[in-house]
Amino acid sequence: FLWYGSGFGSSVEKLLSIYNVDRILVHNDLLALLVELGYILTFFFVFLVNSVKTFKERLMALFITLVFMTDNVIIYQHVMMTYLLVQAALRREAMEAVVKNAPKFTVYRV
Hints:
The protein is mostly helical. 66% of the residues lie in helices and 0% in strands.
């Protein structure tokens, strides 16, 4: 099941069947995604989160990846919206720097 996963929400069921306890709270989003989605989609998710260009964007992506390993923040709307807004602002800043440094062209009308 690790290559293709066992479905959304199944990580808790799998762990309950293995450890036979009353309640399990998974506090590692990447581990939960690995059990639920498998290696392929988990790798694809981590790749998408970390496939940014500028240094600041990479630092932010690394930070959120580390947070994914320590808590279940994918379901926290305030964390994910803050992350996405910061990434959008960083991307806009990078695009404005590219436009600012682009060569100027003069348009002649005939």
